[in-house]
Amino acid sequence: MKLWFWIYLILFFVFLWLALLIGFQNLSSKWEVTVLWMKTTTMVLVLVVNFLWLLQGIFLISFFKSFFGNMQRPELSKFDLDKPL
Description:
Layout: H1 3-25, E1 32-35, E2 38-41, H2 42-69, H3 73-76
Antiparallel strand pairs: 1-2
Helix pairs in contact: 1-2
């Protein structure tokens, strides 16, 4: 498998872990929250977490594109749902 396949997968999990860490760190009703080491408002927290989710989506799509883009036809036939009966 290509190196980019693994890089996309690792980056997806890094940003997933980072978004979950920031989200669980601020499970309170306070108006002042922390994003990693910075004190900020909840609106900035929402923007940062949404940006991280966007990056995760990009890397997940890139991962699937890289994974299925390299396969040959015999390997792809196991994913074929329209096989003749």
